[in-house]
Design a protein that fits this description.
Blueprint (H helix, E strand, L loop, with lengths): L5 E3 L5 E3 L3 E2 L5 H14 L3 E3 L7 H11 L7 E6 L8 H13 L4 E6 L9 H13 L3 E7 L3 H11 L5 E5 L7 H9 L3 E5 L13 H10 L3 H12 L2 E2 L6 H8 L8 H8 L19
Parallel strand pairs: 3-4, 4-5, 5-6, 6-7, 7-8, 8-9, 9-10
Antiparallel strand pairs: 1-2
Helix pairs in contact: 1-2, 1-9, 2-3, 4-5, 7-8
The structure holds nicotinamide-adenine-dinucleotide.
């Protein structure tokens, strides 16, 4: 079984650096896919209320026989539940669907800045953590001004910020802020969601060939060596195994630098929604 390292979070907890993300895993397939992921050796699952598949995650976890403290489960508060006491209702519904008494990490999924209610949502996540319904709290898709505002308002620094991040879109402003403020970065879409020719790009193909690994493994290795947390998605067992088999080799400084240079630096490498456009 793969020896996935754990990273310390700023609240004294820790997180397995590699997990399995279930965005777009159809609800009817989720129990099987997560069961396979657990069999193959994954111990960290990233889901969200909006994915519609928390029940499948919970069923696979329950059937696995694994002790609760061997597993790390993340879920997320959806955008239409930021106001009033809705976040409390939302986490209880997620926990019911997951069949858990608490999650390990609960995230504000998007800041929805047009609604100007992300500070309130963050205040509610702090209450939810203090009530013991999640061990850690964090955010997703938050830009630096959003991060600065929630910290200024509450004094509580999120444990993680989960953002779109892959070689063509490296989000250096946010990663710099996170490093300076002891916030871990989780890379979503770590393989670019298959939306551009990442695997055929010369720096990736060359690094993969040099180590006898696949391009996907080279890219995941790049994330891990940058210190990012990743949870690539696949519903195929052989890819689940491939994506976990990334701990027996190391990219050189030159290989890392060549992949670092793949971001054009103008934001054009983004493959999904901009946080300002999501509500
Ligand atoms: P990803 O970059 O992990 O890409 C997934 C695609 O890559 C799949 O279509 C799969 O077929 C392909 N793939 C996976 N392994 C492969 C391999 N070894 N070789 C070749 N192709 C392979 O994209 P993602 O699923 O969007 O991101 C991963 C996780 O991040 C999600 O499942 C979810 O948990 C999380 N996420 C979060 C947000 C957010 O707003 N917070 C948004 C999107 C995704």
């Amino acid at each position: 079984m793969a020896n996935v390292p754990s990273l310390a979070l700023n609240d004294g907890t820790s997180i397995p650096q590699l997990g399995y993300g279930v965005f777009k895993v159809p609800p009817a397939d989720t129990e099987r896919a997560v069961a396979e992921a657990l069999e193959v050796g994954y111990r960290h699952i990233d889901t969200a209320a909006i994915y519609g598949n928390e029940e499948g995650v919970g069923a696979a976890v329950a059937a696995s026989g694994l002790a609760r403290d061997e597993l790390f489960v993340t879920t997320k508060l959806w955008n239409d539940r930021h106001d009033g006491d809705e976040p409390h209702a939302a986490i209880r519904e997620s926990l019911d669907r997951l069949g858990l008494e608490r999650v390990d990490l609960y995230l504000v999924h998007w800041p929805t800045p047009a609604k100007d209610n992300y500070v309130h949502a963050w205040e509610k996540l702090i209450e939810i953590r203090d009530a013991g319904l999640t061990r850690s709290i964090g955010v997703s898709n938050h830009l630096v001004p959003h991060l600065e505002r929630i910290v200024a308002a509450t004094g509580v620094v999120p444990a993680v910020n989960q953002i779109e991040l892959h070689p063509a879109y490296q989000q250096r402003e946010i990663t710099g802020w996170a490093a300076a403020n002891d916030v871990r970065i989780e890379s979503w879409g770590p393989l670019g969601q298959g939306k551009y020719d990442l695997f055929g790009a010369e720096p990736v193909a060359a690094a993969a060939a040099a180590h006898g690994k696949t391009p996907a493994q080279a890219v995941l290795r790049w994330h891990l060596q940058k210190g990012f947390i990743v949870f690539p998605k696949s519903v195929r067992r052989e890819r689940l195994e491939e994506n976990l088999d990334v701990f027996g080799f190391e990219l050189s400084d030159a290989e890392m630098a060549a992949i670092d240079a793949m971001d054009p630096g103008d934001g054009s490498g983004r493959v999904s929604s901009h946080p300002d456009d999501v509500d």
